Every structure is written in C-alpha cells, then in structure tokens.
# Entry
Amino acid sequence: MDANFYEQVYEVVRLIPKGRVTSYGAIAKALGAAKSSRMVGHAMAYAGSASPKIPAHRVVNSSGLLTGRFHFSPPTLMQELLEEEGIIVANDKIKNFKKVFWDPLQEI
DNA sequence: GGATTGACGTGTC
DNA sequence: AGACACGCCAATC
# Structure
C-alpha cells in the first residue's frame, strides 16, 4: 500500500517521546488534514496490522480521553503503558494531559 | 455502488 | 459542563 498518509501518521506516532502523548487532531493537522482527523483514527486502527508496532497508546483524542483503549489486546493495556511512562490516567482520561501533551508540529 | 460506520474535532444549545 | 449536530473521508457491508 502506498498510503503515504498512513505512513506519515505512523512516523509521527513513532516519534512520540516516552512519557508524552498526542491527539489525533494534532497529528491530522501536522499532516495537513486537520479536518480529516477521522483518517488518523483509521490509520491507528491499521496500526495493529502495521509493522513495526505503533505506540498507539500514546495517541488519544483532543480531550485526553483513551477512546480507543478497547482496540488493545487487553483494553487496560493502554492505561497501564501510559502509567508506566509516568502519565496519570484516571477514568480512562489523562490527568496532566496538557503537561504530557506532545505537539508533532513542534518536532516536524 | 449506495448506505453505514468509525481509535475525531469543533461549534452550538 | 454535558448533550447534540455537522463535517470529513476512507473502509466495510
């Protein structure tokens, strides 16, 4: 597949530093498809079939909510991994979201 | 090939 | 602040 869009999404997600998270909208905007934020979500859905594995647990929605946690093998894995990296997650949502938020536009 | 859905975002009530 | 509506595009039915 030459879905360059997806590859760009994967690349950005892989660039997310440890202990940091980003939002679909931020990635979409970084790729110039801010209005197509859903495509980012689809790309992440493909992440499970993509290689190497994508740290999709570091990608949340604009509210810092772990919307796609049920797509993980154990739905709790997402929160576990985030907490492992020092990110506080409560009620499926990132606590210090603003502090751990990583903007791809700043790196790319 | 039309209709439905979706790991979303933003605006409005 | 919580709920509802619209937009956007791709994949699946």
About this structure: Residues 23-25, 28, 34-45, 47, 56, 59-62, 66-71 of chain A lie near DNA strand B (CB under 10 Å from a C1'). The mean pLDDT of chain A is 89. The beta strands of chain A are 22-23, 59-60, 89-90, 93-94. Chain A has six helices and four strands.
